[in-house]
Amino acid sequence: VSFEDERLDFAAFSARKAAGEFPNGQVPVVIHNGKALNESTAILRYLGKHFGYYPTDPHEAWYADSLVDYSNDFIGKTYPSIMNKNFNDDTKKAYTDIVNTYCAYFNKQLKSHGKAFIAGDKPTTADFHVTSYLCSFVNNKHSPMPEDWAAAAKAALAANPEFNAYAEKMFAEFKDYLDSRPPAPI
Questions:
Q1: 186 residues of the chain, pLDDT tens digit each
Q2: Among candidate residues 139, 152, 155, 145, the one with its CA nearest the CA of residue 86
Q3: Distance linking the first and last C-alpha atoms of the chain
Q4: What letters, b where the CB count within 10 A reaches 16 and e where it falls short, cover 95-115?
Q5: Would you call 49 exposed, middle or buried from its count of C-beta atoms within 10 A (0-12, 13-18, 19+)?
Q6: Alpha-carbon distance 47 to 52, whole Å?
Q7: C-alpha to C-alpha distance for 179 and 76, rounded to whole angstroms
Q8: Is 164 exposed, middle or buried (CB count within 10 Å of its CB: 0-12, 13-18, 19+)?
């Protein structure tokens, strides 16, 4: 899908927020068919439905949504230390525990159904969300986290072979975007 990836500095964001461009006064916002869409998970689901990445079967949709919700919980647990550059032994242990739990859970999901993608036979919104987590907190060359944190995350992924193989496949799928995306800590 072709799209424009627009990143705002604080001055541009403040001006556009004051002009009322963002429905709830924050980003992310996707402009699609002339409408400003807000809230990350709602945007993900909307685009998934629009472009065929959201299951039509109610049970499959629940499963994909449950994986997104699970993954979303971990974003809130992971980003504060990285964004605040709070790197010490206690936060490293917490980060390592979080990433180990995350990787083990998705490894278990892949093992239990034996399919190519996180929620089944074809890519869904869950794949985009899980891959986003991995590309933000595990495999992000622009992250400010210390090398020992990055090594711990990569070790957690490597310790979960099904999820590691899945991650490598998804990194390859998004390689062009990942190589050219603007630097961002998450």
A1: 888 888 888 899 999 999 999 999 999 999 999 999 999 999 999 999 999 999 999 999 999 999 999 999 999 999 898 888 999 999 999 999 999 999 999 999 999 999 999 999 999 999 999 999 999 999 888 899 999 999 999 999 999 999 999 999 999 999 998 888 888 777
A2: 145
A3: 22
A4: bbebbbebbeebbebbeeeee
A5: middle
A6: 8
A7: 25
A8: middle
